[in-house]
Write a structure and sequence with these properties.
This protein is an alpha+beta fold. The protein folds into 4 domains: about 90 residues, GIY-YIG endonuclease (3-Layer(aba) Sandwich); about 140 residues, no CATH class; about 200 residues, UvrC, RNAse H endonuclease domain (Nucleotidyltransferase, domain 5, 2-Layer Sandwich), CATH 3.30.420; about 55 residues, 5' to 3' exonuclease, C-terminal subdomain (DNA polymerase, domain 1). The protein is about 50% helix and about 15% strand. It contains 21 helices and 14 strands. The strands form 3 sheets. Strands 7, 8, 9, 10, 11, 12, 13 and 14 form an 8-stranded mixed beta sheet that branches. A 3-stranded antiparallel beta sheet has the order 2-1-3. It has a 3-stranded antiparallel beta sheet with strand order 5-4-6, with no helix packed on it. Strand 1 and strand 2 form a beta hairpin. Helix 13 runs antiparallel to helix 14. It is elongated and about 100 Å long. The relative contact order is 0.07.
Length: about 550
């Protein structure tokens, strides 16, 4: 399969930096996740002609399926490994084999509320009040650093939750003087807690003093020709740097595409790029799908804080538009969507007002105060219905979005703005995103805005646009399949749903049914020889093939 124009453009913009790349098929599904020390060099190898024509069938199947790709740039290779593992576990791409299990990277855990706190290794983060450090991609370096940290800060390494004097008799840490032995009262609880707090600060990255001390000891040992000791100190310094290197915590993302490493950051950047007073909490995207003006559908996708909000996705069949007119389709979709939200808000406000009125009748409050409360509620109802100033509409109807994204250019944006104005919602920020050059159109501005290709704000807009496109296309495909399956058999007189289902179950499709003999059709439950012959003649007549 030749490289698509979309992929070629992205390949040209790939940076020479560490990160994670996601390969997607033509449906937008992530099929492979990989990491790279140099994204540009690594990803380019997938599209070299010599490799694509190699003997590895799995690699060829992967490259033939690639229709789009996305990358996430990180600070270091360990961060790339952490993000790769997280995305593979959550997305389960079909071409990934490693990292698909439920095994996670190690973390350090300490509960400061324990009688004598201790550091332990764990793979799961739970809400138990403990402090967690990590995850750490190099488990060997972590174990070496933990052993060094226990000796440096005189921390216990024994297993009992609350060790006693009896446990101390058999404690290796205490007898070697690696631990200050709070279990037998060598130090007070407060003193030992200070040791633990110092170790926590060390794990937070305040390890410069210890690193310098170890390097001085290593140089001293090397000068004294104690090479084994110097090598051990060198390994300890390396493990220390690997363990305490700053890494980004990547939060969980939904299982489905689109994928973002840090959606809140992207959302914040989008608000700044568009000049909004605050980052948009709720964003809704619109797209239209049709086949030559038939089976026209619209999709409405919702994003909350930069993440897909699938519970609020909506699909609409366009009813009032004749022929192929994307502008009119967008207008109908916007009108129906927000007219419905305003109606629901109005009904909700009416119910609240009626409940408040019933409640106020049963109280002994002053009549004038009751009247004021009811009047205030009626005003809120009127605002929600669009009968008053739009200044407070969004305050009274919290289900309205903070930003609307239309898939299209000036024409689609203008049609949507007209409908919002009719509904009294023209104060809701709205933009149009044209796909060819990723141009952003805003109401009242003749010149489009272009964001940098690597901009987090643009990537969020692209995810919204691509998700609305996917939902619209999948709905259109469902309707096409349904229409095809119902076409011919519904025209045959006397056939019901049960017999139609029995035919499709046996033959699988109309094409196979056309090729079947009368005897084969007669074997289906509910069909005899006479009806089977009539059905065969009906199908042949539809094909304009003379019966044999």
């Amino acid at each position: 399969m030749p490289t698509t124009e979309q992929v070629r453009k992205k390949l040209a913009d790939l940076p020479h930096r560490p990160g994670v790349y996601l390969m997607k098929d033509r449906f937008g599904t992530v099929i492979y996740v990989g990491k790279a020390r140099d994204l540009r060099k690594r990803v380019m190898t997938y599209f070299q002609p010599s490799r694509r024509m190699g003997w590895d069938l799995k690699f060829r199947a992967l490259t033939d399926s690639i229709h789009d790709l996305d990358v996430h740039v990180v600070k270091s290779e360990p961060e790339a490994l952490l993000l790769e593992s997280k995305l593979v576990k959550e997305l389960q791409p079909k071409f990934n084999i490693d990292l698909r299990d439920d095994k996670r990277f190690l973390m350090l855990k300490v509960n400061l509320r324990d009688p004598i706190p201790r550091f332990t290794l764990t793979r799961l983060r739970t809400d138990d009040g403990s402090r967690y450090f990590g995850p750490f991609p190099n488990s060997g370096a972590l174990r070496n650093t933990l052993a060094m940290m226990r000796r440096q800060f005189n921390l216990r390494g024994c297993r009992p939750l609350t060790p006693t004097a009896q446990d101390y008799k058999h404690c290796l840490y205490g007898n070697l003087k690696w631990c200050t032995a709070p279990c037998i009262g060598n130090v007070t609880h407060e003193q030992y807690l200070e040791q633990v707090q110092a170790a926590c600060s060390f794990l937070d990255g305040q390890c410069g003093e210890l690193s310098e001390q170890l390097e001085a000891e290593m140089r001293k040992a090397a000068a004294a020709q104690q090479y084994e000791k110097a090598a051990d100190l060198r390994d300890a310094i390396t493990a220390l740097k690997q363990t305490t290197a700053k890494t980004t915590r990547f939060e969980r993302t939904p299982w489905n595409v689109p994928v973002a490493a840090m959606p809140e950051r992207d959302n914040l950047d989008l608000g700044k790029a568009l000049g909004l007073p605050a980052p948009p909490v709720r964003i809704e995207g619109f797209d239209i799908s049709n086949i030559s003006g038939t089976l026209k559908v619209a999709s409405v996708v919702a994003f909350r804080n930069g993440r897909p909000d699938r519970a609020n996705y909506r699909r609409l069949r366009i009813k009032d538009v004749e022929g192929q007119d994307d502008f009119a389709c967008i207008a109908e979709a916007v009108r129906r969507r927000y007219a419905r939200l305003l109606k629901e808000s109005s009904e909700r406000g009416t119910r609240n007002a009626e409940e408040t009125e019933r409640g106020t009748r049963n109280t002994d409050d002053d009549a004038e105060a009751r009247t004021a409360i009811v009047e205030e509620l009626r005003e809120l109802m009127a605002e929600a219905a669009g009968k008053r100033s739009t200044l407070n509409v969004q305050r009274s109807t919290s289900n309205l979005p903070d930003l609307i994204v239309i898939d299209g250019g000036k024409g689609q944006l203008g049609a949507a703005c007209e409908e919002l104005k009719k509904l009294g919602l023209e104060r809701i920020p709205i933009i149009g995103l044209a796909k060819e050059f990723e141009e952003i159109y805003r109401p009242g501005e003749t010149v489009s805005m272009r964001l940098d290709r690597d901009s987090n704000a643009l990537k969020l807009l692209q995810r919204i646009r691509d998700e609305s496109h996917r939902v619209a296309n999948s709905y259109n495909a469902q309707l096409r399949i349904k229409k095809i399956s119902e076409s011919l058999l519904d025209e045959f007189p006397g056939i019901g749903e049960a017999r139609k289902a029995a035919l499709l179950k046996k033959f699988g499709s109309i094409q196979r049914l056309r090729l079947a003999t009368v005897e084969q059709i007669a074997e289906v439950s509910g069909f005899g020889g006479k009806v089977a012959g009539e059905l065969k003649a009906f199908l042949l007549a539809r094909l304009d093939v003379p019966p044999q």
